[in-house]
Structures are given as C-alpha cells and as structure tokens.
C-alpha cells in the first residue's frame, strides 16, 4: 500500500493542493473536468472517494476547501449512462445511485470544517456537494439550483434533507418543486450561502476562512462541528448536556491554558490539539 501523502497523490479529473496555516494543513480541492463543466465523471468520483479516505487519516488537517476548475463549480452528475442502459432495473438503479450518493457525501465524514467555494454554476448533484459542506461562499453571478424534476428525476444526493436543514422548508419546496435557478447574490438572502463575492474573490475568501479555522483550537473546533452538524441538537436540554460535557473536555486541554495566556498577553495563540 502506498504511503504517499494526499498532496503528492495524482488524481484523475480532480486535483488537491496543500496550504499551510498556523502549523496545520488545509486541503484545497478542485473538481477538474472543465470541458464538461466539472460534471461528476466515473473517474472523478473514484478520485474523490480516494481523496476523502486520505484526508480522513491526516491528523494535521484543519479544513478542506472545495471549488471547481473555471468556469463552473459542477454541472452535477454525468447522466449519459442512463441513456446507454435504458432497460436497467429499479433495483440496479437504486444500488448505483446509493453508491454514487455515498461516494460524494463522504465529505460529511471528515471531522474538520469543509468550505465550498462556488466559483460558478453548481447544479443538481454539484450543488448537493456544496450543501454537504459546512460553509459556502458563492460568486454573485453563479447559477445555483436543483432542477431534478425538470429532467423527470426525483431529487437526489440527500437534497430533500439538506435543503430544508440549511435554508428551511419554504426555500426547499420552492427550489425542489419549481426547479428554479438562483444566483449567488440571491442565495445569501435565502440562507444557502454565507456570502456572495466577485468570482475572482470567492476562492481567496474561502481559503481565508480556512486559515482562520486553522488558527483555532483543534479539539474545540471538532467538538463544535459535531454539535452543529445534522441540524444541531434535538432539544434545548440536549444542547445543554452536550455543551456541559464538551466544554469540560476543552477545559482539561493544554490548548485552553494556551488560549487564556495568549489573550492575557495579547498575542496569537499556538494550539497543539491537546
């Protein structure tokens, strides 16, 4: 088995670049099939699964930024195989779709914050990957949407869960039932993205956010991420119980004492994740 680190590994239809900040690693990932608007090819999907596996084992990883090779983020899944196999059974199609969903949604298994930099169109499954990330920044004129039903498809890639979770049921019903496309600028008001910017500023903004995350205490950040994912806690009391335990865990870390000392002397802290 190869022990080559992820940033030195070659991927097909995908590339990953190492950035360093505050002594930790940031992965910047490009969906890289620009002549097909970064549609999710079989090769890209395999590369993504491989990369996610490598990232999960990187103890020094602080954050992951995902973007697309210009001009798009991703046009979504490659549906050409459906035309080539019109007689496939429902059982076979279901199995294939579940494998595809789980492959791309594996980004949710990472224990570090993930950031989508939507530099251009993010459509269907492409937008679903962005919705699977913890934070999203978008180009003001980027086209975003989930027009599954306009193709005769039921929505996929967990969008019937992720859209209501992120933007609420009213927005989810609007986008999923009408199939309408929104711009990055409109998406801010809908709660779909945190900020819209000129196209050339989207990736730098996402990397800057990743660098701010890298400067925070790793244990505290990972516990906070777990508290926030999947719609947060089921109840107010569940939140209190989790926070009482998770905050106690961080109170027992060396990083807590470093953070207090740094604040007292007005210097940046140096955290070590312990």
From TrEMBL:
Belongs to the enoyl-CoA hydratase/isomerase family. InterPro entries: ClpP/crotonase-like_dom_sf, Enoyl-CoA_hyd/isom_CS, Enoyl-CoA_hydra/iso, Enoyl-CoA_hydra_C. It comes from the Bacteria. The keyword Lyase applies. This is Enoyl-CoA hydratase/isomerase family protein. SUPFAM superfamilies: ClpP/crotonase (SSF52096). Transmembrane segments: none annotated. GO terms for biological process: fatty acid beta-oxidation. Keywords: Isomerase, Lyase.
